[in-house]
Amino acid sequence: MILTRKTSNSGGGLFNSDGELIGITNAGADSYENVCCAIPVSVVSGVADNIIYYATDGDESTEGVYAADSGITVEGRNAKYSLDSSGIGSITEEIYVTSVESGSAADDQFLRAA
Question: Could you tell me the residue ranges of all domains in the chain?
Answer without folding.
Answer: 1-67, 69-114
